[in-house]
UniProtKB/TrEMBL annotation:
PANTHER family: ABC TRANSPORTER ATP-BINDING PROTEIN, CONSERVED COMPONENT OF ABC TRANSPORTER FOR NATURAL AMINO ACIDS-RELATED
SUPFAM superfamilies listed in its UniProt record: P-loop containing nucleoside triphosphate hydrolases
Record-annotated ABC transporter domain positions: 6-247
Keyword Signal: no
Recorded superkingdom: Bacteria
Protein name: ABC transporter ATP-binding protein
Family annotation (Gene3D superfamilies): P-loop containing nucleotide triphosphate hydrolases
Keyword Nucleotide-binding attached: yes
Length: 251
């Protein structure tokens, strides 16, 4: 088996008396989509916050690409390639779609463009930004104002901004939330395309999407991982069905 890109060991987070992630351990192998599912309040978002570095765990360790990152902040983790897609908040509505993506490329690359001539500099930034937009099917909307995008298109732009970080592992927290049926179909198609080139850790409520996309699934219930396995094994696992999945839900 390929060496894990992410290894989570004994991760614990308490809010007062509530233990929100309780001795969480799992590993993510490179390539494809590893999903984390669980009922409301299971601790999925709290787990993503701990993985991305916005929340410090009380105990446990996170190793990313063979390196201990538990004590690192968000920016350092992102520079190592552990990137999270943020919702709407990081999209600048008054800037074009291309400018938003180019700003993300520039934020990642920092000073590496400084030594190029201004025109070449801008061309290189724009080319990389366009590649990210094309990867999420938003190339044709490059000139549009980000504020004029539909809900689904904004989700695509957030994905492009995350791709501009050149992630080795992309953390996605409910990328389909709030999307209508058509947008959901489109976003699933985009994620299907992305999983060929990226490793993705996906938290998502849409079970149809999860079972269509993921090659591995971890199930979180009351802060504990009760199973990590293939979709077929998860679907058949009596403990999973009892704890979370309705009998019909994944039939
Ligand atoms: N900052 C906080 N302070 C106190 N309690 C919190 C905090 N953040 C989350 N919680 C609680 O921790 C529990 C887990 O929340 P979390 O958002 O991680 O779950 P989730 O699995 O993502 O839920 P959902 O599927 O509804 O998004 C909930 O009971 C929530 O109220």
């Amino acid at each position: 088996m390929a060496e894990s890109i992410l290894e989570v060991q004994g991760l614990r987070k308490r809010f007062g008396a509530l233990t929100v992630t309780d001795d969480v351990s799992f590993a993510v192998a490179p390539g494809g989509i590893h999903a984390v599912i669980g009922p409301n309040g299971a601790g999925k978002t709290t787990l993503i916050h701990q993985l991305s570095g916005t929340l410090r765990p009380d105990a446990g360790s996170i190793r990313f690409a063979g390196q201990e990152v538990t004590g690192m902040g968000l920016a350092r983790r992102a520079r190592l390639g552990l990137a999270r897609s943020f919702q709407i908040t990081c999209v600048l509505p008054g800037f074009s779609v291309l400018e938003n993506a180019a700003l993300a490329v520039q934020a990642r690359s920092g000073s590496s463009f400084r030594f190029l001539r201004a025109a070449a500099d801008e061309r290189a930034l724009n080319e990389e930004a366009m590649a990210a937009l094309d990867a999420v099917g938003l190339g044709a909307r490059a000139a549009a104002l980000a504020g004029a995008l539909s809900h689904g298109e904004k989700r695509q732009l957030e994905l492009a901004i995350a791709l501009a970080m050149q992630p080795r592992l992309l953390l996605l927290d409910e990328p389909l939330a709030g999307a209508g049926p058509e947008e959901t179909e489109r976003l699933i198609g985009i994620l299907r395309g992305l999983k060929r080139s990226y490793t993705i850790l996906l938290v998502e409520h849409d079970m149809q999407a999860v079972f269509a996309l993921a090659h591995r699934i971890s199930v979180l219930v009351y802060g504990k991982v009760i199973a990590t396995d293939t979709p077929d094994a998860i679907r058949a696992d009596p403990a999973v069905r009892a704890a979370y999945l309705g009998e019909d839900e994944v039939a």
